[in-house]
Structures are given as C-alpha cells and as structure tokens.
Amino acid sequence: MLDVVTYRRLVRAALDTPISMGETRMASPQKVLCLGSLAAGICAASVSSCADSRIPTDGLRVDLGATSTQVAQSFAEEMPFLDLAREVPSHGGFYRDTASGNVVVYLKDIAHADRARSLLRHLVGPSLARPGFARRGREIVVREAKYTFLELKAWRDRLTPLIMAAPGVVSLDLDEVDNRIVIGLDFGVGQGLLRRIVGDVGIPQEAVEFETVGPIVLHQQTLLDSIRPFEGGLVIRRLSSGLIHECTLGVNALRNGQRVFVTNAHCSPSWGQTDGVQQYQPRVPITASDSAVIFPIGHEIADTSSACGNRRCSNSDAAIYLATGNPDNWVLGRIAATIYGCFGPCSGGAPLTIDSSRPHFVINATNFSIMAGDLVSKMGSKTGWTQGYVTDTCQVVRSGANLVYCQDFANYASDLGDSGAPVILDIGLYPDSLVTLGGLHSAKAQGGKSVFSPLSGIWVDYGSLIVH
C-alpha cells in the first residue's frame, strides 16, 4: 500500500517537474496532501492538516512503479513531435486521417499554420507518398487544438508513476488524434479516485478522458511448417516445465556482427531477464529420440529491462536470440508471405498458407516514426496476415507486473501464438515484395485492437540492429 509520505513525494515531484522547451510552467496548488484510509489512519491523527485534502480516501491500493524522473523522458517515437514543437510550440500533435490519407496537425495558434505545414513536409513528406495512400489526397490539414503537445506530454509524464500504479489502469496515452490524455481502464473500474489523482497533480480534468478497454492479453500459445532458411512470421516454440509455448519469429538481424533473431520478451520464461531459453522451429523435442534429430534455432542472449520502483520497465517487448546451428539456415531481411490477408476483425484469422508465387516479403526500409492513421500489417503464425490502422501511439502499458513504455495500438486482428510477429508497412501489389519494417506485435487488447512495440523502442533497448 502506498503510504502518505511516498504519495506526497510523488505528487510534489510531479508538480515540480518543469514543462520543457519554453512552455509556461504551471503553478503548484497550495494544499496539504492527506490519504485517510490509504495511510491506515494517519490523517485521523493529524486532522488539522487535512482541511484542503483532495487525495482519495477510500482505500485505493497502488503498487509503486516508476518515479516521475524516470518517466519524464522523450521517447524515440515522439521525437518528430518534439522536433516540430521546437519550431512551432503551439502544435498539439499530428496524425494521418484514415479516410482521406491527409496528415492532420493540431495548432493552438492557427497563425502558425504555414510554418507548421512547411516543417511537416520535411518531417513526414516521404510518408505522404507511400503506396497505400497513392490514390488519396496528400494534404496537410490544420485543426484548432485546445492543448499543445508539450502540455500533453508534461501531463502524461506527471501521471505515469501514480496512474500506472493504480489497480485497474491498463494504459496511459498521449492521444494525438483527440488532443487529450486518455487513460485505459479494465472492465468495471470507476473513474472517481483516478480523477482525483489527476487533480492532485495539477492537470485540467477536461484534458483527460477515460476509456474502458479491458485487459491486455499477452500472446503465448499457434506459417507452421519447417522452413529453412527461417524467416520472420514463422512459428517458434519452446518447452518449459513440460509445456509447449508458441510465439512467432519477428525478424532476423545482425547485432554486433552476430546472426540473431528477435521476438517478444514475454516469449521467454522470465520477462526482462536474460534466461538463455532455447527456441525451436517448428517442433520441440519431447522424447530422447526427438532430441537426437530436433535442434534449437537459437537461444536468448539479451532481454533487457531496468528497475523502476518495485517493477521492471522497458521500452519494448522484445528479446534477442543468437541463431545457432547451420549458418545457411538463417537469412537476413525476409518475412514469410501468405496467399492473402484480411483487414479489421478477421474472424478466424487469415490463411497460413505461404504464397508459392511470392513466398516472402523483403525488408528494404525501416520506419521509426509511425503515426496514428498509418496502415500496418502483422504476419503471425496464429492468425496470419492481418491488417489495420494505427489507432494510438506511444502508450505506457502494463505487461504482466511490468511496464512497457511507448507502445502502439492498431485495429488488426491477432490471437494467442502471434506474439513477436513482424509489423510491416508499405506492402505493394504483386509482384512487388518490398516492405518497411515497423515493429513487433506483442499483445491483444480489447475492442478489436492489438498492441505492438515500434522499432524506435527496440532500438533504444538494444541499439541499432541491421535488418536488411
């Protein structure tokens, strides 16, 4: 349970954190913090100091995680937004409109419209000409914002250590589409206590919205044949405590000259800790005779996380495996391609049959600045090639008992067994096989959404990887 002293320290630290890059700093409200039953009667012992309390008093339990200084950082995926803010501080975020293909930018001061358009053409110009939007408009549209990106970022960073420690909170998002902070809640969780926390750290209530999103379900259960050289999108399996666990191989890469592959960190027994677990493709050895003929394709050599309070935190749900065995069984820059995919909910998933005429996609680019409204595809060993639009970017989410920063959500279909699947963009018409790598699928969210770790966070955790 969070005690009075710790809660006071976190709230005051949040209130004292300046808003960066020239933004006017909010004045800290003059009030005494008190927690009532949160502190097991401490308030009752000092009731005279609690006259102006706005802290929850009905037993909110929190599991203390990251501190405000640990999360008040600039995520790699948000750098384009910060770059624009340096020149146009009044911007409130930008995204791609899925109906028109236009890039929409929010501005608190419309007088900055021409400057914002000019800078955005340099920041996102190449994405305006992507194949998926070739038949659509390519304009930069200005809309009026209530809040600047810098304000929303500062408020999001203030909230993270307190809100993400509260039970029933699933996610926290700086929503560049709605120009708000959005807090995702599990089913049946009320807003009252959480809104009071929002007020305690000096954030306007109207700047925060709540959505009931339900729990995020990590995938680890089934494309499926033995394929050599192995490539992204194929099923991989491990054996732990007598149980077979399934995931999807994300992407092969070169790291410090070593042949490796990448999949989700939660596809190993110990999230955020390197445990050396072995992965097989497609079968694991069950008997002694199996072990004589079935060999692993690699073992885990890097699964990074850092301490943040009494949790572990990371910038991605990703781990690195050293490829073992015959070097000819490993190939760089390829992702298995199935006969066709499906868009949206895709009940039952898409076919897992590999296309004999175009058996794989070839990675020829990487995208480190995915924005809301981008069209992305996932190639997973359970539901195959599914496609949807990015709906939310850079959310802080819980992964079991841990926190993962800056995760993206999209409305493509996924299921257990898709964990680690490559997320790709810019798929052209046959026979074009070139694609852009954008990240790794990690989880299934509620409301028809899926979660993926963008490349920017993977690169922060592990450094630059050569993927093509």
Verbal overview:
Helix 1 runs antiparallel to helix 6. By secondary structure, the chain is of the alpha+beta class. It has 3 domains: 136 residues, GMP Synthetase, Chain A, domain 3 (2-Layer Sandwich); 55 residues, no CATH class; 245 residues, Beta Barrel (Thrombin, subunit H). Helices cover 18% and strands 32% of the residues. A 6-stranded antiparallel β-barrel has the order 21-22-23-26-25-24. The chain has a 5-stranded antiparallel sheet with strand order 11-12-17-14-13, with no helix packed on it. Strand 24 and strand 25 form a beta hairpin.
Brief synopsis:
The chain is of the alpha+beta class. Helix content is 18%, strand content 32%.
Number of helices: 9
The unreliable regions are 19-71
The proportion of residues forming helix, as a percent range, comes to 10-25%
Largest sheet: 6 strands, antiparallel, barrel
The structural class is alpha+beta
Q: What is the terminal separation in angstroms?
A: 48 Å
CA-based gyration radius: 23 Å
Approximately what portion of the residues adopt beta-strand conformation? Answer: 25-35%
With strands numbered from the N-terminus, the spatial order across the biggest sheet is: 21-22-23-26-25-24
CATH architecture title of the largest domain = Beta Barrel
Taking all residues together, what is the mean pLDDT?
Answer: 84
CATH class of the largest domain: Mainly Beta
